[in-house]
């Protein structure tokens, strides 16, 4: 299972790596720090190298998550990639904008580490099971 993590916060990134590497044996995390880096990564992938899903932060420098979503949804190579948004934003406008752009899930990062960990594991388990069937 390979997924693309688009996240600029180093502490969040380290937490995600730690949680998932302890929980899953065969997960390949590709990490980029903003939407532009993620877009460049995708454009350089062959069809069989694409990630199985994308975990996307919204608030990032250079190209934010909504801009990134807009770009990939307009490109036939990436338009069907599942995208799960993970963000600090509980703003309904952000949520509805992402829904319009075809996200597969949206969760607000919980400050409670245990809840954050449980949610993250549930999301990855869901996509691992969904994509292996």
Task: Provide a descriptive summary of the structure in words.
There is one protein chain. The protein has 133 residues and is of the alpha/beta class. The protein has helices at 10-23, 35-43, 65-73, 92-100, 113-132; strands at 2-6, 28-32, 53-56, 83-87, 105-108. The chain has a five-stranded parallel beta sheet with strand order 2-1-3-4-5, sandwiched between helices. Strand 3 (53-56), helix 3 (65-73) and strand 4 (83-87) form a beta-alpha-beta unit. Helix 1 (10-23) packs across helix 5 (113-132) and helix 2 (35-43) packs parallel to helix 3. The longest helix is centred in the last third of the chain and has 20 residues, at 113-132. The mean pLDDT is 89.
SSE layout:
Layout: E1 2-6, H1 10-23, E2 28-32, H2 35-43, E3 53-56, H3 65-73, E4 83-87, H4 92-100, E5 105-108, H5 113-132
Parallel strand pairs: 1-2, 1-3, 3-4, 4-5
Please provide a brief summary of the model.
Helix content is 46%, strand content 17%. It has 5 helices and 5 strands, in the order E-H-E-H-E-H-E-H-E-H.
By CATH, the architecture is named: 3-Layer(aba) Sandwich
CATH topology: Rossmann fold
Estimate the mean pLDDT confidence: 89
CATH C-level name: Alpha Beta
Main sheet specs: 5 strands, parallel
| SSE pattern, N- to C-terminal | EHEHEHEHEH
Q: What is the beta-strand fraction?
A: 15-25%
| CATH homolog superfamily | Response regulator
Please give the radius of gyration in angstroms. Answer: 14 Å
Helix content: 40-55%
- In total, the number of strands is 5
pLDDT < 50 stretches: none
Q: Strand pairing plus helix content: what structural class? A: alpha/beta
For the terminal residues, how far apart are their CA atoms? Answer: 13 Å
Strand order of the largest sheet: 2-1-3-4-5
If helices are DSSP runs of H or I spanning 4 or more residues, what is the number of helices? 5
